Amino acid sequence: MLTDRQLLILQVIIDDFIRSAQPVGSRSLSKKNEIQFSSATVRNEMSDLEEMGFIEKTHTSSGRVPSEKGYRFYVDHMLSPQALQQQDISQIHSIFAERIYEMENIVQRSAKILSELTNYTSIVLGPNLQENRVKQIQVVPLTEGTAIAIIVTDTGHVESRRFSFPKDLKAEDIEHMVRLLNDRLVGTPLMELHDRLYKEMAILLKRHIANYDLMLQAFAEIMNVPVHDKLFFGGKMNMMNQPEFSDIDKLRLLMDMIEREDNLYNLIRPTDGIGIQVKIGKENENVAMENCSLITATFPIASGQKGSLAILGPTRMEYSRVISLLNMLSGDLSKALSDLYGKSQES
């Protein structure tokens, strides 16, 4: 159990290190207005805090920095909500003030503004993509023998793929096929597209389209939906500006992990709970994130779905400010996406 004096010293050390990224020494600590103890007293208390694992030495300075245990205690027991400035609130509200009718636009703007407000990397995961329903299928010719197939869903999501087709295939056959696909597949959830294409459409296409099998194969590839929902990023390169990642090897490891996306998806995908979750350093169970904290807000969306909004930053993160921003934005995002998702289900 920490004494009141130790609690105060630990809080001042962490707050100071978050602001400065510089190790904190007992002499500089004793000069702070909040600390009314002698340098010797502060030094003794810091020694006890280090022995208990809340702070640790660095290789480059005689000062101390918070340990993961220290950050965890700080987040769990010492944080108080930070009141957001009006400028922050206005920026968040601006996401929803424009006439935006597509889910992806709202999600992308949310990621962008959140990264600008924090100077960290933001990640947003919207509703389950595989439950989106087909609204329209289009084919746009590019060159002789190539075209782009476009699938638009009821939430405004767009999937597009370039594909090849036999050069002797007539334009009217392609147009006929697109009409058949729209007639039969509009309203189908993306997760069912592939099966319906082979089980229902193959027989129909065989009757009406020459070389139907080649076209069927091309469309089957197009209709293979990603194994997980799309992640939207803001400020992917922001971590380069953090002193913790001045080591090029650490930075490369982190950027590779961000680009691969699968690990991040597994970390932020919605689970049973709603609300804020903070993972610090090794709690992320990924060597690339040992110097990072990940704060995730999981929020409800209509029809029992959930979305996630996350900030990836250094362990030396402005936890109170980030949590306040996530709480506000996730609430607004929950309402906006629920409204849009509800409308798409009604149409």
UniProtKB/TrEMBL annotation:
One BP term from GO: negative regulation of DNA-templated transcription
Keyword Transcription regulation: yes
Keyword Transcription regulation: yes
One example GO MF annotation: DNA binding
Keywords: Repressor, Stress response, Transcription, Transcription regulation
Gene3D superfamilies: 3.30.450.40, Heat-inducible transcription repressor hrca homolog, domain 3, Winged helix-like DNA-binding domain superfamily/Winged helix DNA-binding domain
Superkingdom classification of source: Bacteria
Domain Heat-inducible transcription repressor HrcA C-terminal: 104-323
Entry similarity comment: Belongs to the HrcA family.
Annotated function: Negative regulator of class I heat shock genes (grpE-dnaK-dnaJ and groELS operons). Prevents heat-shock induction of these operons.
Record-given protein name: Heat-inducible transcription repressor HrcA
Source species: Jeotgalibacillus campisalis
Lineage: Bacteria, Bacillati, Bacillota, Bacilli, Bacillales
